[in-house]
Amino acid sequence: MITQQELIAIGTLRRPHGKQGEIQCQMSNELWDEAEATFLILRLDHLFVPFRVLDWRGKGTDTIIFQLQGIDSETAATRLVGAPAYMLRRDVQGDEESMMTWQDLVGYEVIEQEQGSLGRVQSIDESTINTLMELEDGRLLPIHEDFIVHIDDEQRTITLHLPFAL
């Protein structure tokens, strides 16, 4: 079974492209272009499902059109619309820091410098321009590099300085 720790988020499937099952993916980073990946991993019904990539090509600056094995019609491609897309971390060339994404913070304890522990990160929402982390108690916090004081990968903590009280 594929786990979140093995993956890097790369984008979201947006819409079918043509009638032969191709689908457009809005990319959130450029890691796919540099990788030696043969599988696109999609999150479907809370499971990570691998699809062999038969072909892909860029469209514009932030869109890739994928042809996936087993997806051979517009109807089949439509069923995948909205799915978050990932690639295997092992397929990315480069140092560990350049591969880190916001999704890697799931499970980390959030510590606010003045307020102390706020809880653990349950999920990251990158669907809008304002990235949010959801804590286990349901609270949403904006996540931005300006708020981050320190990330400790060994202790799995993220220390923030938030300009507002919770």
The CATH homologous superfamily name of the largest domain equals: RimM
Structural class: mainly beta
Number of strands: 12
Give the ordered list of helices and strands. Answer: EEHEEEHEHEEEEEE
- Percent helix among the residues? under 10%
Q: How much is the average pLDDT?
A: 89
Nearest-angstrom radius of gyration? 17 Å
Major β-sheet annotation: 6 strands, antiparallel, barrel
Low-confidence stretches: none
Distance between the termini: 37 Å
Total tally of structural domains: 2
The CATH C-level name of the largest domain is Mainly Beta
Number of helices: 3
Which second-level CATH architecture of the largest domain applies?
A: Beta Barrel
**Residues in β-strands, percent:** over 45%
Any idea what the shape is? Answer: elongated
- Strand line-up across the major sheet: 1-2-5-4-3-6
CATH topology of the largest domain: Elongation Factor Tu (Ef-tu), domain 3
Please give a structural write-up.
The protein has helices spanning 31-34, 74-78, 96-99; strands at 7-17, 22-27, 39-44, 47-59, 63-68, 84-88, 109-112, 116-125, 132-135, 140-142, 148-152, 157-160. By secondary structure, it is mainly beta. It has 2 domains: 4-94, RimM (Elongation Factor Tu (Ef-tu), domain 3); 102-160, SH3 type barrels (Roll), CATH 2.30.30. The chain is elongated and about 55 Å long. 25% of the residues are buried. The model has no long low-confidence stretch (mean pLDDT 89).
